[in-house]
Design goal:
The complex is a heterodimer of chains A (about 375) and B (about 400). In chain A, about 75% of the residues lie in helices and about 0% in strands. Chain B folds into two domains: about 190 residues, no CATH class; about 160 residues, GMP Synthetase, Chain A, domain 3 (2-Layer Sandwich). Chain B has about 400 residues and is of the alpha/beta class. Classes of the chains: A mainly alpha (about 375), B alpha/beta (about 400).
Chain lengths: ~375, ~400
């Protein structure tokens, strides 16, 4: 088994921009309209999406600001320059854990979704394993290849997202969006909490900015990347409320149902959801791939001598077992929430800490 | 490395041996219509339902040149029980095919089933919940046995369910029929506890008539009555926008038929006095003169004015009749006033929501005022068809 070696493992800043929405957009959006509509009246949830979107734009910008100060250095390298090495190791390991859990969660959500809609009889374990093996294959190759895959898949994902909106306009009822601005403040806060959970994945930047050839423009680029995800979320949310009205809050996967209502007369697009599933699995694949790769990358930076394939052989069974751990739908959702909070707190803490230290140290060397 | 290769190949063998969910297309029983009736031998209070599914028999469809195919293009199977899902599984025992609902077009429910409170919601549950069902399936109420409609042999269609669907699709230019209601909308009605109407069909031998509306009380989702003929027309004038239809009126004892080109209805709340809410329904219509009896030149301003007035009065009268019925007899707001209240007067709506067409019944206590404004914008391609006075111009 020979691995093809690419000339260099560098990526452009455009590739990192696309990597952000590729990472963020996955299974979260499929259930997001329901979670938002549960606590807000009609389409008022868009406010929460927007506010949390701005919040995450700021957070990613902060992460990027930190990482670009150390061009072409991995997270572990620059972290150990700023904090004692054992602390840097702990930080990196915490991110490895995040990557593992993230990948496990995505694998499980995907297999449940596919089991629900596509494979009635196939055991969830088998779907999960089949999917995971493909992800592992992706991760075992070149890292820059992952970004090239993102660049290739994301336009297709965006196109399908937009065409779902376009084709369901026939079912869209504007009166479903009324009354506006009648949600109470406490409910808005509740909705905001839910919507912050749907942007998990942005912390891959801490690691991947090291790969960018010229990281100068990266902070701007990643903010643009988050905005793409926010925009996609907004239009998909408003469309599903417009189409389903109050039923949005009671559909398990509103976006999948959106794909199912689409019927272009003539029978050509009667089964739009089959195309939708194919493409959305691509989106979930990208996310899982990057989550797994972060775990590998983190371990690689600490244990520089171990080969990638060996790390993967160790991680894959672990991810599989964790993904099979939740027993039901509720527990999967709980795992998802846990991961989001974990990432938010971890990245918030680590980034702020490192930024403060970096500015102090920077000041010292400068003065 | 060799060991890894071997183990991967072994794993692949497990994964690639076949698909758990493989069903040959010949073995799939494509169901295009489903109907729910009361079972004939239902004992005491235990409600027994009968589910009838219409399967497509592809060989029966044949090529047009095949001529008369005696076997028929469809097959109806009925099962009785009290859980629809269970009945559906039972159905698989009666046929060599696996029931497959993704191509379901129409659900027909017998009136008898939905006259009991909450049964409609229970029956709909499986159709909304199951992932095979699509939210675009049309739901219709049938007078008498629903199953009967699946047995007819329409002249121009092979499949009764498809026939019914086309009838519903094509006759919406009539003011007295409702737009087809889809499963998704039913879900919204049920969740919102709002009163609603569903279209009705009557089996007529080898055809169906699609007319009128079945009125459901939102709180109990029980069918409380029907709107027929002019009553349904009145409902159509209020709830259907830009969907066509006719207004039949008389001018000087001669029938004049106006065809609706464009219509718009506005519901506004005039005061917020609970117990006596004043609600205005304003219907604006642009019509064309489709048919006149007698021999008048219809382009004269005087005639147009007369037609507009007669049309307005006619609409007012019909709508008032409908309002009276839904307010006094059915106590169910199917006019969509609740929507307007919720969307435009949310503060008030929050307070009266629980007492709208139940409890205190503010809906029944409110005064609804109808205004109609008809404008003639078209007269057809000739302004006069017959001549009475034997003038040559």
């Amino acid at each position: 088994m020979k691995q093809f070696e690419y000339a260099d493992e560098k990526i452009s800043d455009k590739e990192i921009m696309i990597a952000i929405p590729s990472m963020i957009v996955a299974v979260g959006i499929l259930t997001l309209p329901r979670d938002l509509a549960e606590n807000s009246l009609s389409a008022d949830g868009w406010i929460a999406i927007l506010i949390s979107g701005i919040l995450f734009c700021f957070l990613t910008w902060m992460v990027a600001k930190l990482a670009v100060q150390f061009p072409n250095e991995t997270f572990f390298t620059y972290a150990s320059r700023l904090v004692p090495k054992p602390v840097a190791i702990v930080f990196t390991l915490l991110y490895v854990v995040l990557g593992i859990m993230f990948a496990a969660y995505e694998v499980r959500e995907l297999s449940d979704l596919a089991g629900n809609y596509l494979f009635d009889q196939t055991p969830v374990e088998v779907i999960a394993l089949a999917f995971l093996l493909v992800v592992v294959y992706g991760a075992s190759g070149s890292r820059a290849g992952i970004f090239r895959l993102n660049m290739m898949f994301f336009p297709i994902i965006g196109f399908i997202g937009v065409s779902i909106v376009f084709f369901s306009l026939g079912w869209f009822k504007v009166e479903n969006l009324l009354p506006m601005f009648e949600t109470s403040l406490t409910d808005h806060v509740e909705t905001l909490k839910v919507s912050t959970l749907s942007y998990s994945g942005f912390s891959i930047l801490l690691f991947y900015i090291a790969l960018v050839r010229q990281p100068k423009k990266v902070p701007k680029m990643v903010v643009a990347g988050v905005s793409i995800a926010v925009l996609l979320y907004l239009i998909l949310f408003i469309t599903s409320v417009g189409v389903f009205g109050i039923a949005t809050a009671h559909l398990i996967y509103p976006i999948v149902e959106l794909g199912k209502v689409i019927e272009v007369p003539g029978g050509f697009f009667e089964r739009f959801e089959s195309i939708f599933f194919v493409v959305w699995i691509m989106a979930i694949f990208n996310t899982t791939l990057m989550a797994l790769d972060i775990a590998v990358y983190g371990l690689q930076s600490i244990f520089t001598r171990i080969k990638k394939v060996k790390l993967l052989l160790f991680l894959t069974p672990l991810i599989f077992v964790i993904s099979m751990f939740p027993q039901n739908y509720m527990e999967i959702a709980l795992l998802g929430r846990f991961i989001s909070y974990y990432e938010l707190i971890l990245t918030g803490f680590v980034t702020t800490l490192l930024l403060i230290i970096a500015s102090r140290k920077g000041g010292k060397t400068g003065g | 490395m060799a060991k890894i290769c071997i183990s991967i190949y072994c794993a692949l063998c497990i994964l690639l041996v076949g698909c758990w969910d493989r069903i040959e297309i010949e073995e799939r029983g494509f169901i295009i219509g489903a109907s729910v009736d009361l079972a004939e031998n239902h004992q005491n209070n235990n409600q027994e339902l009968m589910l009838t599914s219409q399967f497509v028999v592809p060989s029966g469809l044949g090529a047009p040149t095949d001529g008369g195919n005696s076997s028929g293009a469809f097959m109806n199977l009925s099962v009785t029980g009290n859980s629809l899902f269970d009945m559906n599984r039972d159905m698989a025992k009666l046929t060599s095919l696996t029931p497959f609902y993704e191509h379901l077009k129409v659900i027909i429910i017998s009136e008898e089933v939905v006259r009991e409170p909450h049964v409609f919601g229970n029956v709909m549950d499986i159709f909304i919940r199951d992932h095979e069902m699509r939210r675009g399936v049309k739901v219709v109420i049938s007078e008498g046995q629903a199953q009967q409609t699946f047995d007819m042999k329409p002249k121009n269609e092979d499949l009764p369910a498809i026939f019914i669907e086309s009838v519903m699709e094509n006759s919406t230019a009539n003011a007295n029929v409702l737009e087809p209601i889809h499963l998704g909308e039913v879900h919204e009605y049920l969740l919102g506890n709002r009163s609603f109407v569903l279209p009705r069909i009557f089996p007529l031998g080898n055809s169906v008539e699609y007319e009128g509306a079945a009125v459901f009380q939102g709180d109990t989702n029980k069918m409380v009555g029907i709107l027929e003929g002019d009553e349904a027309k009145g409902l159509g004038y209020v709830t259907k926008e830009n969907k066509g239809g006719v207004v039949k009126t008389t001018i000087d004892d001669q029938i004049v038929t106006l065809e609706i080109e464009r219509s718009k209805s506005d519901i506004t709340l005039k005061n917020k006095k609970r117990g006596n809410l004043k609600i205005d329904i304003k219907i604006d219509m642009e019509v064309g003169i489709a048919e006149t009896f007698g021999s008048r030149r219809i382009t004269s301003p005087k005639f147009i004015e007369k037609a507009e007035k007669a049309g307005s009065n006619q609409i007012k009268e019909i709508v008032n009749q409908t309002i009276k019925k839904v307010q006094e007899q059915y106590e169910a707001d199917v006019l969509g006033i609740d929507n307007v209240l919720q969307n435009e007067h949310y503060d008030l709506w929050k307070e009266i929501r629980e007492d709208w067409d139940k409890g205190e019944n503010y809906f029944v206590q409110s005064t609804i005022n109808v205004k109609a404004d008809v404008k003639v914008i078209e007269s057809g391609v000739s302004d006069k068809i017959t001549n009475k006075n034997r003038r040559d111009y």
